[in-house]
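DM from R.C. (forwarded with permission)

"hey, sorry to bug you on a friday — could you get me a structure for this? deadline for the figure draft is monday and I only need the backbone to look sensible"
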Amino acid sequence: MHSSSLLRILTLLGMFAAFLLPATSAEASAPLRTHAAARSKFIGAALATSPLSNETSYRNIAATEFNQVTAENVMKWDTVQPSQGQFNFSGADAIVNFATQNNQQVHGHTLVWHSQTPGWVQGLSASAMRTAMQNHISQLVGRYASNATVVSWDVVNEIFDDNGGWRSSFWYNTLGQSFVADAFRAARAADPNARLCINDYNVEGINAKSTAMYNLVSSLRQQGVPVDCVGFQGHLAIQYGFPSDIQQNMQRFADLGVQVRVTELDVRMQMPRSSSKDTTQATYYRNVINACNAVTACAGVTIWGFTDKYSWVPDTFSGEGAALIYDENYQQKPSYTAVHDALAGGTTTDTTPPTAPGTPASSNVTSNSATLTWTASTDSGGSGLAGYNVYREQGTTDTQLGQSTTNSINLTGLTPSTQYQVYVRARDGAGNLSANSALATFTTQSGPVGGGCTAVGTVQNQWGNGYVVQPVTVTNSGSSAITGWTVTFTLPAGHTLAGSWNATLTVSGQTVTARNAGYNGNLAPSGSTTFGFQVTRPSGNTQTPSGYTCA
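My reply, with the result:
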């Protein structure tokens, strides 16, 4: 072992030596990093160099609360090597020096990305581009290879589109898929001891994009390419719902033998900010931390900044903001408390359910859809209000029609000319369910019953004890537009649904009912949309779902 490797190991041991006691022994008011280290996790923040050097409050919070930091911009290609062969490490050095002074890890971000890469790179021939990439990695990673503070890197960033295909970037268009393996091998050569990561957004839950990443990581590792970890960015928004299968997704990657981590967490909201939005945001933060806590291979969570004063969100998403755990005046928000308490853990158990929601009121009732609204619940148990489940009362077995994070929902895929009696239950962050709301009754309008759409499922990928069905193509086979659809199919015995995307799935026995999401229910004649799902099954069983019907 060479001296730099020994120095890195000793430094890392020193970082965690003070925090090897059980998490419950940490003081309740201790900083975030204390509770994270007690779990052998990191809690990180992306830092900007200007406020780090110019604002005392920013610098003090960054030093006190976090045991890992990521350079928000100053390690990206356009800063480090704006012109070919001319390197500028001043910003990167400032981040590394700050972390070294405050006993923090540094995660390097990012080596190969389609954005924030100078034009001189994008116009190169294939051979020249590959050489430039390898040289850039060698110079940047190699600079910090002997520094025990820099322990990991995002090697490639955002290489898939949202449908799970390869992004049509200049990297892919010039070099094909090979640039990914080449980049990882170059990074390993530059620093044999750093942990090397692949990173992307919208891969927090199990969906087409995360499955594409799963398949790539599995393939690369089988080829001996040194992919050590997978980063889930975590740019969430309260209006779009929480990826409830994030823990399952982390675990399936962990089962490949890689480390997982949340690399760029923020939770934006539509402005103006309100107490109810703060509560939902805090629940999302808590859920992410809890998911990481539950997966041994999850190294930690990095928040993309920490104060709303320096968030990227308002400049990128019009009318949205307030995405971080401190406000613009460096005051802690409910989301800070949620992160703190989720890391502290073990001190209290929430067994108190939320209050029952108000009676739902129906509106905008059509032949296959209806909108429900109700008075919001409150939660006093400490885990926070997480959302609502909506059920149809049907006697001994009540069907769940949908979930919402707010006190309203648009139900789709309903049956024409049918009376519905529905009720709502609130749920909190600990999984407690409230009592039922009072019943509401409405009747859908008349319309075509069945025969208006078709569904065809395609098995995309199979392995020993599971498979992915993607796409399930839903097509409007009628002569008029539809505003919602419901697909049913049968899982073979012993098969269990593990996650889904682009539809809401409910299970009764082995029968699965899929209802459209809020954004893909409207189909013109001959129009189509897709959804997908993942299933676990007994090893050796090769059966797949059957009996797809659509209404």
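R.C.: lifesaver. Residues 108 and 153 are 4 Å apart (CA to CA).
me: no worries. The two ends are 65 Å apart (CA to CA).
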